[in-house]
Design goal:
The protein is of the alpha+beta class. The strands form 15 sheets. The chain has a 9-stranded antiparallel beta sheet with strand order 2-3-4-5-51-50-1-49-48. A 5-stranded mixed beta sheet has the order 10-11-12-13-17, with no helix packed on it.
């Protein structure tokens, strides 16, 4: 729930198309989409337009790590079409064809060779019948990938090689035909009512036939009587009645049959592995309508091959092509299509016209006989689609001049510390370019195109041939030199470069093969090995090379097979090398000796032990984790790194810390979530799915990291006072409240000082004894420590001086550089560098400006995501005020989905078809000057950025709107930051100057404030456009397919870890729910209400005011808080008295919430396979739906539940939702439901927002105590809700609970006040008996949460005066419970808690230490602070309007406006202060009536003012005064 990073991928494909070795092909039944799977593991989705015969690559689905073996349609649901794919290593995936999202993943030992989709009778969804390397037919649900049932064999069980499903006429069941590899035909009869989970269905008939290793089995759909079985050597026709052979045709020499199908009842189409197909006319004994059917085949009656299907030009195929035959019903009959995909990436389509018997007879009469040739109607490939694009798709090095045919990029490495991208090419050169500048150059218009030094490359030349791999050791571990870059090439060499100067530091040539991979040893190795890098070569050797000593340390070269895995065992000094034959070689790193060679089970155990050791020690880094990824498929690095969806495995940690900006107020612990503090906002990953491809590049914009970087830079410039002024922290307010709740009497301070003095004296005596015991040794060590400390201090002073000089020099350098950037001159070329030593003398600065790079990343992201063209005035503001730049090309976005699988849009596809594009918005003179292809590109870009961007898919719309709105809000909150570099530098200088000169007022303050307000308004308008107005604006441009955001994704982000993303998700979800209207919300309720959990057990009791234990939810100052929380943990089973109730107890309709601690929303543990893992994943999916339903229905109820039309009245839905929310709030923390999770925070937040709706079904006291328990440490943990940096889970829950308390108190002040007053009364009663009960009263919730209670009460006093006046006695009970009595000994109530003294019903007498409070029922509550007692005095018949003590405290006067009476009261006590005191009325006076207009205004009520010890003035709001004497 919100724990997953919000990442926006973007692809720069480059000038060359990716190779696509097609292994399977599928044309959907609607003839709108073609899907091709490749042997490299990728799946390409093509858009097909039959009228135009146009086939366009739309997106590439990246995720499979092995060859895709089969594809099948997954059916339609929720307005989209699904696809199921399977690979040769057992991976199955379900994809959403609308945008390519992976919605389900399964990894099992079952490897499928064929999948057939079939819609069974009386079943809503289709079923997948799968066969493969297992002796049964498995039937899957395509949406969940669960095995529903299986078809097994009793007689001669064997692998099923082919199957066919049909429904005989006039029957209500399905017949499944299957043939085994051994040649046994099996027949199953399947009916949905007979299906039993986990119980196999056995065959009804079986028979042995003469067909081994059959590839295809097809029953004729025209008569359901003849069956075609195709094997490699022949194809045969059988009678389905008794499976007797009717005819057989052998394969031509040198070919192999691959499959076939019936064109009609008497025509057969078969195809082979050479890329050809043949059409045969069957003999008469194979035709059902013929009298000779089922007779013996006549000698002269053989199948006639009258048609040959072949491509226009013959090509020799390395791998066998994939085929699909499809019959499409049309108005006048049926269209017969044959589809072929080959290893060259070509997709060919044949439209097979029918040949009548008369036409066939004419063909046969022609001598010599010549078969008809069918040529493809359509021939398309990615290469052709790329070639048709003018200009070609952009690449990262397209700015290099003088290269008509630039070398291919063969290796890529992003260096976040330097902001550089290193690209190795096949000519041996390495290009280093500024990453953000290069991307901006290709994607965005702007002034940077005229700068000479913009995106200037550095060229490193030293390899003779292709560069295979790059490594930046310092990025893996800080122990390496920051300037070193290591490259490995095809010339057997490993070069070490100095990146800053471009010089070649050293060249290693120690292996006899090209270098395949470079690794870094783990940090737990010996110091000598820690300075080494590890290289894997094609000669099956592994080398350890010392960069520091510049020599070879170990050469492991006795491996007989290629290396597949490199692992480490540092504590035993072992290097573990696994080869592709399964052998494991164990090498001693220091000595270089081969310790042993292992095989079989022992080898697997050794590799597993290395993984376990790595997990237990927590040794990180890609080098320490082994090299099993990357040595096989080059794209595996990318896939595996994204599998956990946090990009941690592929992202380099930027070595930039964050300062703690809350100053001394939070000195107990750091409240920030450090997991995002070292993450680079931009990650660039090379994508090369095949070794023959050039590198494409995927850009990952990490939104949370970008927000953290922007806010941390902003907060660092602010002082604590500035943070407080901007409402980012509330330290002073909480400090003031916290002081009131702690003792302040001098006696207490004196006792504490005496106690510490005694402790100090005892410590001094003990120290003296210890010194006398070992005087000489201690003095010697102390002297040595003093010398060392003095030396360190001297070095620190010198370094401090040097650092100050260095900083001043850097500031001057930055000023000079800013001036230089504003001037431009001619770009340079690469021809200036021809020497083998290094570069064209371009030097990289050693001190990289991280802040400037962050602004460039933000500028890129916002410029690309903004909807240009919808609001011209906003576009002008964006360009000239906010600093956004217009895009140059339509951007190829990506989408990260389940298990880290990705969908990458192709540059050849545009969401808006050419016929639907509006006219171009370009000045005529400019259009005349530009080439036609550039005008067309600009046209496509305008349409894409304006409307096409939002017509792709709901998921893409959701992620992009979240990113855009959250970053815009961040920039707006940063004192209205702009993305124009000069303006941003000026703004930061102004902030720093105002920080240093807080008392002086600048002359430009008004101008600066005016400019900031304009910028703030610009960001606000941009946010409003994309939050509220976007659907209407997009539809106004002519769009018919606007894709609204997905409410379930927004609901899961309701309590995202990042505050800005959280607020963006909440705003978008509320807007989308409002846009839906009542009908749309009702559909949502109907869809998600079945997933709500039902609790038949009592709710958890939650914290009570008399709980005597340390609260588990809030860390104490002396206890480090645990940050290892499940980010998206659903709730667990209901608890009753602390005992966990099993999910099987209760009724069948009960859906208890029982999470698994190791599985979150979309996480899938790769090491857990089989049925157990599948069950856990299925449970996780159910819990995810439960969590989504709780939040979604909670939001609908909170904002629309008070409308009776929404179904949230006093009914079952509101009760269920409130019970679920209350359960999450009250349940104690456990391993299944940690105390601080986003789901629990969402429940806390929604209970606060929708409290009026949930109140009838809640135990308000339990809820308030639970929230107080969570927010008890707010003064120490949580800043304000405006503070945007991610917090640790404890602090985030604390802040959310505090905000929820405020919302509850604001929505229902009487309920809050009365409930808290009752709990305070219970607490006071308990406090009197605490000693007898042996109860530590200081650990109770009401004691620990005094500060928070006082804060809420002050909030109510300020904002809800009317409710406070009605419940003044209860309010005073709560306030006196929170305020320590010591503060009222020497100071008045108006000094201690002045807000409550604004009510005339309250009066405090410091002399007698009494407080009088008037009640609504006319009574007076007299509080004796000395005795901690309260006496209720019946005084008036109506509400008491005003009270006041005389200056000497002897008299109390009370006034009731309702009965127009003023009374004097005198309190008498017993002799010497003993005995009970009594308060009596001494005098009563009638007063003038008060006008009704005054009665209705609480601010104009009469007051009582004493002018002497016996005279009081009754003062009216209009100034009228009346004096009364006691």
């Amino acid at each position: 729930m919100g724990s997953l990073n919000l990442v926006v991928p973007l692809v720069m494909w480059g000038r060359e198309s990716p190779t696509h070795d097609i292994s399977c092909v599928l044309l959907t039944q609607d003839v709108q989409t073609v899907i091709t799977g490749s042997r490299d593991g990728q799946i390409c989705v093509w858009d097909f337009e039959p009228p135009k015969l146009k086939l366009t690559p739309r997106c590439l689905l990246v995720g499979h790590t092995a060859s895709v073996t089969c594809l099948a349609p997954g059916g339609d649901a929720r307005g989209t079409t699904f696809l199921v794919s399977s690979s040769e290593n057992g991976e199955m995936c379900t994809w959403d064809l609308r945008d390519g999202r992976c919605v389900e993943v399964l990894r099992s030992a079952n490897i499928h060779s064929s999948m057939k989709a079939y819609h069974m009778l009386n079943v809503e969804n289709i079923r997948l019948f799968c066969v493969g390397n297992y002796p049964e037919i498995l039937v899957y649900d395509p949406h969940t990938l669960d095995i529903l049932f299986s078809l097994a064999t009793r007689i001669h069980p064997d692998w099923i090689s082919a199957l066919h499903i049909l429904r005989p006429p006039k029957r209500n069941d399905e017949v499944v035909l299957g043939v085994t590899t051994g040649g046994w035909v099996k027949v199953w009869t399947v009916s949905e009512r007979e299906v039993r989970p986990r119980e196999p269905i056995f065959e009804h008939e079986s028979k042995m036939i003469r067909s081994l290793n059959a590839l295809c089995l097809v029953c004729c759909s025209y008569n359901q009587r003849t069956v075609l079985i195709v094997s490699q050597d022949d194809w045969q026709i059988y009678d389905a009645g008794d499976f007797s052979q009717l005819c057989r045709v052998l394969v031509p020499p040198g070919e192999r049959w691959m499959g076939g199908d019936f064109l009609s009842a008497d025509r057969v189409l078969v195809w082979n592995d050479m890329g050809h197909g043949y059409i045969y006319k069957l003999p008469t004994n194979c035709i059902v309508e013929s009298r000779a059917f089922h007779n013996k085949q006549a000698d002269n009656d053989n199948p006639v091959k009258y048609g040959i299907i072949q491509p226009s030009t013959e090509e020799k195929l390395v791998n066998a092509p994939s085929w699909q035959f499809l019959t499409i019903p049309v108005n006048n009959g049926a269209e017969k299509l044959l589809l072929r995909g080959d290893c060259e990436g070509q997709v060919m389509l044949w439209r097979l016209a029918d040949v009548s018997d008369s036409q066939l007879l004419q063909i046969q009469q022609v001598q010599p006989f010549k078969a008809l040739i069918f040529t493809p109607t359509l021939n398309q490939s990615m290469m052709k689609a790329w070639a048709a694009m003018t200009p070609p798709p952009i690449g990262v090095l397209d700015q290099l001049e003088g290269e008509k045919h630039p070398p291919r990029i063969t290796a890529s490495l992003f260096l976040p510390l330097q902001g550089r991208l290193a690209c190795g090419r096949d000519d041996g050169s390495i290009i280093l370019v500024p990453a953000t500048e290069t991307i901006m150059l290709h994607l965005l218009h702007g002034k940077h195109h005229h700068y000479h030094n913009w995106a200037q490359p550095m060229v490193l030349r030293g390899h003779q041939g292709r560069v295979n791999c790059l490594l930046y050791p310092h990025g893996e571990s800080p122990r390496y030199d920051m300037s070193h870059l290591v490259s490995g090439g095809i010339d057997f060499s490993i070069n070490v470069w100095d990146m800053y100067t471009g010089n070649l530091v050293h060249r290693f040539v120690v292996q006899a093969g090209q270098i395949l991979q470079l690794l870094v040893p783990p940090p737990t190795c010996t110091p000598r090995i820690q300075n080494c890098i590890c290289s894997v070569s094609e000669d099956h050797s592994v080398a350890l090379l010392s960069i520091k000593e510049r020599k070879l340390v170990l050469l492991a070269s006795k491996h007989l097979y290629p290396v597949s895995t490199v692992k480490w065992r540092p504590e035993h000094d072992f290097l573990i090398v696994a080869t592709q034959d399964g052998s494991v070689y164990v090498w001693q790193m220091e000595t270089g000796h081969l310790d042993r060679v292992l095989q079989g089970v022992t080898a697997e155990e050794v590799l597993g032990a290395c993984d376990e050791h790595l997990a237990s020690t927590g040794a990180g880094g890609s080098g320490s984790g082994g090299s099993d990824v990357g040595l096989a498929n080059p794209a595996v690095h990318l896939f595996r790194g994204l599998r956990h969806r946090n990009l941690a495995a592929i992202r380099h940690a930027a070595q930039r810390g964050i300062q703690q900006v809350l100053g001394e107020q939070n000195n107990h612990q750091d409240i920030h979530d450090s997991s995002k503090m070292r993450t680079c906002p931009l990650m660039i990953q090379g994508l090369r799915t095949n070794k023959q491809d050039a590198n494409s590049h995927v850009l990952f914009f990490d939104i949370e990291a970008l927000i953290v970087q922007l806010l941390s830079d902003e907060y660092t410039l602010m002082s604590p006072g500035t943070l407080e002024a901007n409402d980012l922290i509330m330290s002073s307010q909480y400090h003031r409240m916290n002081v009131l709740t702690h003792p302040a009497s001098p006696e207490a301070a004196k006792k504490i000082a005496e106690f510490f003095g005694k402790v100090k004296d005892k410590a001094g005596e003990m120290e003296k004894k210890m010194k006398e015991k070992d005087k000489h040794d201690i003095l010697g060590r102390a002297r040595d420590r003093a010398v060392i400390m003095e030396k360190k201090l001297r070095e620190r002073d010198q370094q401090g001086l040097l650092s100050r000089v260095k900083e001043s020099a850097e500031s001057v350098q930055n000023l000079i550089q800013n001036k230089v950037e504003q001037s431009g001159f001619r770009p340079t070329t690469l021809n200036s560098s021809k020497d083998g030593s290094g570069s064209g003398r371009v030097q990289i600065p050693r001190h990289f400006d991280v802040t400037a790079q962050t602004l460039q990343i933000g500028q890129m992201l916002m410029s690309l995501l903004h909807s240009w063209g919808l609001d011209p005035s906003l576009d002008h503001t964006c360009e000239h005020t906010l600093g956004l730049l217009r895009p140059r090309v339509p951007v190829s976005y990506g989408l990260i989905s389940k298990s880290g699988y990705m969908s990458l849009l192709m540059p050849t596809w545009h969401p808006v078809r050419e016929d639907d594009m509006p006219a171009i918005n370009l000045p005529p003179d400019l259009a005349a000057e530009l080439p036609p292809e550039m005008v067309a590109l600009e046209h496509r870009t305008q349409v894409f950025t304006g409307r096409g961007h939002w017509e792709v898919s709901p998921a893409l719309t959701t992620h992009h709107l979240l990113a855009l709105v959250s970053v815009a809000n961040t920039l707006q909150d940063m004192n209205a930051a702009t993305l124009i570099p000069e303006e941003e530098r000026r703004r930061k200088i102004h902030i720093q100057s105002s920080k240093s000169n807080q008392n002086s007022v600048s002359n430009h303050e008004d101008e600066f404030s005016k400019q900031q307000s304009v910028i703030k308004q610009g960001w606000s308008t941009l946010t409003a456009l994309h939050t509220v107005l976007l659907p209407d604006c997009v539809v106004a441009t002519g769009a018919t397919k606007y894709q609204p955001p997905m409410v379930e994704i927004l609901a899961r982000r309701w309590q995202d870890r990042c505050q800005e993303v959280r607020e963006a998700a909440q705003a978008l979800l509320k807007t989308e729910l409002t846009r839906m209207g009542p009908e749309g919300r009702q559909k949502l309720v109907e869809t998600w209400s079945p997933h709500l959990p039902t609790h038949t057990e009592p709710l958890p009791t939650g914290p009570t005011p008399y709980t005597n234990h340390e609260p588990p939810n809030t860390p104490r100052p002396d206890q480090p808080s645990s940050k290892n929380t499940v980010g998206n943990s659903p709730v667990h089973t209901a608890t009753n008295g602390g005992n966990v109730v099993s999910g099987n107890s209760g009724t069948n309709n009960e859906r208890p919430m029982e999470p698994h601690p190791h599985l979150d929303e979309d996480h899938y543990d790769e090491e857990m396979d089989g049925e157990t893992c599948r069950e856990l994943v299925a449970q996780s999916e159910g819990r995810k739906k439960q969590a989504t339903a709780i939040i979604l229905l909670g939001v609908i109820g909170a904002y629309h539940g008070q409308d009776s039309a929404e179904g949230f009245g006093l009914g079952n839905l509101a009760m269920q939702t409130s019970k679920a929310l209350a359960y999450l709030v009250l349940a104690t923390g456990s391993s299944k439901l940690p105390a601080h999770t986003p789901l629990r925070r969402a429940a806390i937040d929604l209970i606060g927002r929708g409290f009026p709706v949930w109140e009838p079904y809640l135990d308000v006291a339990k809820i308030l105590l639970a929230l107080l328990d969570l927010s008890a440490e707010t003064d120490r943990l949580a800043p304000s809700m405006k503070y945007g940096l991610p917090l640790i889970p404890e602090a985030d829950s604390c802040r959310t609970a505090s905000n929820a308390l405020t919302l509850i108190a604001e929505a229902k002040p009487p309920a809050f006040i009365t409930t808290m007053a009752r709990e305070v009364a219970r607490f006071n009663a308990l406090q009197q008996n605490a000693q007898s009960l042996q109860l530590n009263i200081h650990n109770t919730v009401l004691h620990r949460a005094k500060t928070e209670i006082l804060r809420v009460m002050e909030y109510l006093i300020v904002h809800k005066r009317c409710h406070i006046m009605d419940l003044m006695v209860e309010v005073m009970d709560i306030v006196l419970h929170c305020v320590d009595p010591g503060h009222l000994k020497s100071r008045g109530l108006n000094e201690v808690f002045p807000s409550i003294c604004g009510f005339p019903q309250v009066s405090h007498c410091p002399h007698t230490r009494r407080i009088a409070t008037g009640a609504k029922n006319g009574s007076i509550a007299m509080y004796e602070l000395r005795a901690s007692k309260c006496q209720m005095i019946p005084a008036h018949g109506t509400a008491v309007t005003a009270l006041s003590f005389s200056p000497d405290g002897k008299y109390l006067t009370s006034y009731s406006m309702g009965e127009n009476r003023l009374s004097f009261w005198q309190t008498s006590s017993g002799m010497f202060g003993l005995g009970a005191s009594q308060t009596k009325c001494t005098k009563t006076f009638s007063t003038a009536p008060v006008p009704d207009i005054v009665r209705m205004n609480p601010q104009r009520l009469p007051k009582l003012v004493w002018i002497s010890n016996k005279t009081v003035v009754h003062m009216m709001a209009d100034g009228t005064e009346h004096r009364f004497n006691a």
